[in-house]
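Practice problem 4.
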């Protein structure tokens, strides 16, 4: 792959990182108590590092489980994964693909990240189904779900966290017919938090894997950088430049290059994984969805949603994530709703796929701790 294509790959897949490097910043905006204050990066590191020295810090229980998994491996491996089935669900007259497995136990809803789909959970669904009812959904616009063009519908915006959150909640009502634990990666974590805020009676708990920090959000940019961002977004969305960029990244070599950036263990970037990410991205409408989302710099931030969440939250983070730095992510451990912050050693941005031997038992442990604490919704609620 030539130098130009490689550069476009980085810019298109993670524009937030591109802008983070382009626009020099000296602090990180972390809203607390509905107010935004600028916290020096050095303070974040020193403050969160000091938490690890506390004898009763939040990190002890689940990190012990991680250490055990590193030594003994995933205890689920002795049993073959349960069969995973695929189906479609009609939501607001759109076809939504989902996968499911398991017939008993608490319900889990797995939510993918940007540019991914439910197949990104292929190493988790069947294993977790050994004691749970597991569902993995393609958010509208991604995977093999429909990809309507909002401009053709006369809408200013369709691909928002509020839309996807409504999709999750309606899926629990129509398909799961029960409360569920949300297990989320990257932007899927923001979707899960938004869903829990909109309908708290549905979500029993949220497990966040490397949740997106949303560094491109307009609130996180200095005033002098905002015009640049808006101009660049307009260029991508309203001219042929965006489609040109997308065409450059929608190739096997470019997708592999992108994945090798965010996976610390690049041996996990297989031909199968490349095909899983690329194939639905070649479907009609995929480029429009991609451009719509990367030009979406509004909406909620994780630090705005966490104070509103009423269910327990666990945050796990691959320490080698080059896109969502763990030193910034650790600030989320300060919120009352977050019961645990777990460091996943030598893992990148997609722990569920790169290190399922760590993630699967962590999910099972989190769900087991909270499944008995909340009763199922009454049938009248569905």
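Answer key:
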């Amino acid at each position: 792959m030539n130098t130009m294509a490689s550069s476009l790959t980085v810019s298109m897949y993670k524009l937030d990182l591109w802008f983070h490097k382009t626009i020099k910043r000296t602090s990180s905006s972390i809203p607390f108590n509905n107010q935004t204050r600028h916290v020096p990066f050095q303070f974040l590191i020193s403050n969160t590092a000091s938490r690890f020295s506390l004898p009763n810090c939040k990190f002890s229980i689940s990190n012990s489980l991680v250490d055990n998994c590193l030594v003994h491996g995933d205890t689920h491996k002795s049993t073959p994964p349960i069969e995973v089935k695929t189906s479609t669900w009609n939501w607001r007259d759109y076809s939504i693909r989902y996968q499911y497995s398991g017939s008993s136990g608490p319900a889990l809803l797995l939510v993918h990240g940007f540019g991914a789909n439910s197949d990104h959970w292929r190493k988790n669904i069947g294993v977790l189904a050994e004691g749970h009812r597991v569902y993995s959904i393609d958010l509208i616009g991604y995977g093999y779900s429909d990809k309507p063009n909002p401009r053709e519908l006369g809408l200013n915006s369709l691909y928002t966290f509020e839309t996807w959150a409504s999709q999750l909640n309606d899926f629990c009502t129509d398909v799961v017919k029960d409360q569920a634990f949300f297990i989320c990666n990257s932007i899927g974590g923001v979707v899960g938090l938004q869903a829990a805020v909109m309908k708290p009676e549905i979500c029993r708990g949220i497990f966040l894997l490397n949740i997106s920090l949303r560094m491109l959000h307009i609130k996180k940019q200095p005033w002098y950088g905002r015009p640049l961002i808006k101009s660049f977004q307009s260029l991508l969305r309203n001219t042929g430049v965006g489609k040109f960029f997308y065409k450059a990244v929608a190739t096997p070599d470019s997708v592999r290059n992108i994945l090798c950036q965010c996976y610390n263990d690049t041996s996990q970037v297989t031909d199968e994984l490349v095909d899983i990410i690329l194939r639905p991205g070649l479907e009609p409408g995929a480029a429009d969805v991609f451009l719509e989302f990367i030009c979406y710099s509004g909406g909620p931030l994780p630090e705005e949603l966490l104070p509103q969440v009423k269910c327990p939250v666990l945050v796990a983070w691959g320490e080698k994530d080059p896109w969502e730095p763990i030193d910034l992510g650790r600030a989320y451990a300060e919120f009352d709703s977050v019961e645990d912050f777990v460091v996943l050693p030598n893992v990148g941005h997609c722990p569920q796929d790169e290190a399922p031997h760590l993630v699967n038992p962590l999910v099972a442990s989190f769900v087991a701790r909270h499944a008995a604490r909340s009763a199922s919704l009454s049938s009248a609620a569905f």
